[in-house]
Amino acid sequence: MLRLTFTVLYALCALAAARQSPQAEYIEELVQTSNFDTRFSDDLHEDARLDVPELVRKYNYPLEVHSVTTSDGYILEMHRIPHGRDASNTPNGKRPIVFLMHGLLSSSADWILMGPGNAFAYILAEAGFDVWMGNARGNYYSRKHLSLNPDALLNTAFWEFSWDEIGNIDLPSMIDYVLEYTGNDKLHYIGHSQGTTAFFVMCSLRPEYNEKIISMHAFAPVAYMAHNRSPLFNYLAPNAKDIETIASLIGIGEFLPNNNIMTWAGEAICSDEVIYQPICSSIMFLIGGWNVEQFNKTMLPVILGHTPAGASVRQFAHYGQSIDDKGFRRYDHGVLKNLRVYRSIKPPNYDLSNIVAPVFLHYSDKDPLAHVNDVDRLFVELGAGIKIRVPMTSFSHLDFIWGIDAKTLLYERVINLMRAVDPQA
Ligand SMILES: *[C@@H]1O[C@H](CO)[C@@H](O)[C@H](O)[C@H]1NC(C)=O
C-alpha cells in the first residue's frame, strides 16, 4: 500500500510539473504517434481546438456566455443556447428551460461535441428548449475566483472542494441565476454521472430546491458506489485519504491529467491486448464505462481536445470514500475537522428522502460506475424516483453522452418525458 501511495504521489508530482503543457499539443502527439486511424479531417482537428462558445457558433447556433459568482467566491461560466438555428421556431409558444450538468473531469463541452443532430444540447434547442449548460468550479471554464489563485504554488486553498460543494453551492447559485435571468420559476435538470451526484447533494442538503425542479433526468446516476467496477477508482479507493493528504501537503490540489499521468496509468491498468491504446491511455477511458460499438472513433481527437477538463484531487478522494465505506456521505475530513464542521466524528449521510422532485434514473446494465445494484439502492431511498433502463445491454457510462445511439435510445425518450410532465414543453 505504501508503494501504491508513492506511485500515485509520483504521478501527481509529474502532473504538477508538466501541467503547463497545453492539451491540444498532447492530443496532436497522441494522434500522430498512434498506429490507429489518423486520417481525421482538418475540420475535426479544428473542433478539437475551439472552445465551447467558438464551437457552437461555428455550427451556426446562438451562444451566450454567463458568469455566476458563488457565495464563496468561485466564478462559474455558464453557456446558453437560447434557441435552435431558426429563432422563430418555438413549437409551443414559450421555451421551457433545461439545465445540463456535466460529469467528473468534463465540462459543458460534453453536451455539444458530437455536433448538430447528435449532441443533446443541439437536439434540445431544436426541440424548443432554452438550453443552459453549467460548469463546476475548477474545470476549464470555471477556474476563477474572486481572491484565490488556482495556480498558486504550495497553496491548495482554491482546490479544497469536492462534489459536496458543487452540489451544495455551485448548483443552487447557477439555478438561481438562470431562473432570475429568464423570469421562470422552475426548470428541467439533466445531469450525467457527477452531474447527478451533485444534484442529489443539492436536494438533500437544501430541500427548498426541490420546488424549482419540474423534472430531473439522471444519466448514469451515481450516489452509492459500493458495487463500482471502475479500474481506476477501485485502484485509488483504499488510499483515497492518504492521497489527498499527501497531495495537499506538497501543494497539489488539482487533478489535471496529462501525458505523464496517462502514461503511468496506462501502464498500470491497460494491457497490451487492448486494441485502442490511445483511448486506453486517456484518463477518461481508464475510469471506465465505454464500449467499442457505441464509440465513434472519428470523434476521438475532438473528445480528447476537450476532456479531461480538470477537477480537484478531493473530488476523486470523495468518490474513493464512497467506495470504501459503501455509503453516500459528506466529505470525510478526519475526526477533528469533522467534529468542527459537522459536530460528529463521522460525516453525516446525505438524506435521500429529502429529494422529492420527480427523478428519472436512466441507467444501463453494463455501466461499471453506476452499477445496477447501486442504482437500485438509490431508487429505493429516493422520495420520488422512477427507474428507466436504456434498452441496450452493452450501453455504458460514457455512451450516455457520446454513444452513437444515444439519440434514439435515450434523448428522444427524455424529451418525451419532459413534455409529458410539463404542459409548456
Ligand atoms: C462518426 O462521426 C463522423 C464525424 O462527425 C460522422 O460523419 C459519422 O457519421 C459518425 N458515425 C456514426 C456511426 O455515427
UniProtKB/TrEMBL annotation:
Keyword annotations from UniProtKB, A to Z: Glycoprotein, Hydrolase, Lipid degradation, Lipid metabolism, Signal
GO terms, biological process: lipid catabolic process
Domain (Partial AB-hydrolase lipase): residue spans on this chain: 52-114
GO MF, one annotated term: hydrolase activity
Keyword Ribonucleoprotein set for record: no
Signal peptide as annotated in the record: 1-18
Record-linked InterPro entries: AB_hydrolase_lipase (IPR006693), Lipase_euk (IPR025483)
UniProt cross-references to Pfam families, sorted A to Z: Abhydro_lipase
Family per similarity comment: Belongs to the AB hydrolase superfamily. Lipase family.
Protein name: Lipase
Source species: Parnassius apollo (Apollo butterfly)
